């Protein structure tokens, strides 16, 4: 992450430095040109002022006065006649004036004057010319000169200021980018550390996430992943412990009773009893392995269901007729109520497995003489199937966990009841594969309601879990 912070900061720095360079260069060129143009305009305006005075009073005393004024200024003046002959001039300017004035084409000089020497980079002076016109005729010209050293000095100062500001800007840019890249990468560093912990099996990762930006969303995703992995690890350990327990108990029975049945001194009647127990435990293990195989296929997303349009009432009536004798044997009532013309798309074999499991649970955990009912009704776009019993019920503390694998409300009934603790979990997976949901409500000691909700109008023929 240090490398990422450096690369990110370097990338920002290059982009910002490039932008600053372009902006500073543009600003520098603009300011330099503006200042130089300002110098030209001021020099031309000074020459025009002298020209205006001379046009009003063209006398030797006035000409001398103009030259005397410029002798105390940073500029110099040269006054010529109409043919370019020098009449009056400031000190030290005469050599440069004699060189420049003959090369000036006075025919193109307007009354407002013009710059006749603008090469401030190579020449020692810049110059302007303003014509003196009286009575419609040109009497002469006022040439103004200014040393380019002053312009060069101004440019040097401007360069110095820009250099200082540029260095300060680069320094502040580096500090700002370093801070910002650090701020940006700190959450990434923490996320990297968190993922390293996750890779080592430490799921106790807690990230302090603030905001709703992409980094915050990534942090929340890692936090959610950590919680899910922690939950899955706990579930896996509990699952393996439950499988170990479920297999160890019947295997202990099988091994123990097989050892007794092998004794030659045992009577045949007693041997048959032990063999019967061994057979029951083998059946229990067979059912457990079958349920585990079903769950394994669901977890691997290879559990396939084949839906088809099914008249629900007719389908449930067949299940009712199949289960009715078992309820009669236990002196219990099985009631069936269903509206006509309800069609759902289900895998009949898988859904029959769900209904048989729920009805078998109701039969096991209900008292003799009680009633179990199957009720079907429409709710908007859904179909609700409710299996109700008047049995022992489920304690409120256990109700949220009844669909978890190997969870049993009454642990003491696990052997006598013959269940594996997987039936409701498998039923939940099958119902959800149909796009539905299953839930439970119960009052302890009064009974339980298992509620299945299925969608209508599902035209899919094939579906897969996941």
Automatic annotation (TrEMBL):
GO molecular function, one term: phosphorelay sensor kinase activity
Broad class of where this protein is predominantly found: membrane
The keyword Transmembrane helix belongs to this UniProt entry's keyword annotation: yes
Reactions accelerated catalytically: ATP + protein L-histidine = ADP + protein N-phospho-L-histidine
Localization per Swiss-Prot or TrEMBL: Cell membrane
EC identifiers of the protein: 2.7.13.3
InterPro entries: BphY/WalK/GraS-like, HAMP_dom, HATPase_C_sf, HATPase_dom, His_kinase_dom, HisK_dim/P_dom, HisK_dim/P_sf, Sig_transdc_His_kin-like_C
Pfam families (alphabetical): HAMP, HATPase_c, HisKA
Transmembrane segments: 162-184
Membrane topology term: Multi-pass membrane protein
Keyword Transmembrane helix: yes
Top enzyme category: transferase
CDD domains from the UniProt entry: HAMP, HATPase, HisKA
Keywords tagged on the record: ATP-binding, Cell membrane, Kinase, Membrane, Nucleotide-binding, Phosphoprotein, Transferase, Transmembrane, Transmembrane helix, Two-component regulatory system
Any one biological process term the GO annotation gives: cellular response to phosphate starvation
Entry GO terms, CC: plasma membrane
Domain Histidine kinase: 242-458
HAMP domain segment(s): 182-234
Name of the protein described by the UniProt record: histidine kinase
The organism's taxonomic lineage, starting at the top: Bacteria, Bacillati, Bacillota, Bacilli, Bacillales
């Amino acid at each position: 992450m240090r490398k990422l912070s450096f690369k990110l900061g370097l990338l920002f720095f290059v982009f910002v430095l490039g932008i600053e360079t372009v902006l500073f260069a543009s600003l520098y060129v603009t300011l330099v040109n503006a200042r130089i143009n300002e110098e030209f305009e001021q020099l031309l305006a000074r020459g025009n002022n002298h020209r205006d005075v001379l046009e009003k009073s063209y006398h030797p005393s006035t000409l001398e006065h103009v030259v005397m004024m410029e002798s105390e200024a940073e500029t110099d003046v040269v006054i010529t006649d109409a043919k370019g002959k020098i009449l009056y001039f400031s000190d030290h300017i005469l050599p440069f004036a004699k060189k420049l004035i003959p090369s000036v084409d006075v025919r193109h000089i307007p009354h407002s004057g013009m710059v006749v020497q603008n090469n401030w980079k190579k020449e020692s002076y810049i110059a302007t010319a303003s014509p003196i016109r009286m009575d419609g005729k040109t009497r002469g010209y006022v040439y103004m000169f200014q040393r380019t050293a002053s312009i060069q000095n101004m440019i040097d100062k401007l360069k110095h200021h820009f250099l200082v500001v540029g260095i300060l800007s680069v320094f502040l840019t580096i500090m700002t980018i370093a801070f910002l890249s650090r701020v940006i990468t700190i959450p990434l560093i923490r996320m990297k550390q968190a993922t390293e912990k996750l890779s080592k099996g430490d799921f106790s990762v807690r990230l302090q996430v603030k905001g709703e930006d992409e980094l915050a969303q990534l942090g929340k995703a890692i936090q959610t992943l950590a919680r899910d992995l922690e939950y899955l690890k706990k579930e896996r350990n509990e699952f393996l412990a439950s499988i170990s327990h479920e297999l160890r108990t019947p295997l202990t029975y099988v091994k123990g009773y097989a050892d007794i049945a092998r004794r030659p001194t045992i009577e045949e009647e007693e041997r048959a009893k032990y063999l019967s127990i061994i057979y029951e435990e083998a059946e229990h293990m067979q059912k457990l392995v079958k349920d585990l195989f079903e769950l394994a296929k669901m977890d691997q997303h290879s559990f396939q269901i084949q839906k088809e349009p099914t008249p629900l009432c007719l389908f449930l009536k067949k299940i009712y007729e199949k289960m009715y004798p078992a309820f009669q044997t236990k002196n219990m009532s099985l009631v069936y109520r269903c509206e006509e013309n309800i069609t759902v798309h289900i895998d009949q074999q898988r859904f029959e497995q769900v209904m048989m499991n729920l009805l078998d649970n109701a039969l096991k955990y209900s008292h003799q003489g009680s009633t179990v009912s199957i009720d079907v009704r429409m709710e908007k776009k859904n179909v609700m199937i409710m299996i109700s019993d008047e049995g022992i019920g489920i304690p409120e503390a256990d109700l949220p966990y009844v669909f978890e694998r190997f969870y049993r409300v009454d642990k003491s009934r696990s052997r006598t009841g013959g269940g594996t603790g997987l039936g409701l979990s498998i039923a939940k997976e099958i119902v959800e594969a149909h796009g539905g949901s299953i839930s439970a409500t119960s009052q302890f000691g009064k009974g339980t309601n298992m509620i299945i909700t299925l969608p209508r109008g599902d035209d899919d023929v094939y579906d897969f879990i996941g």
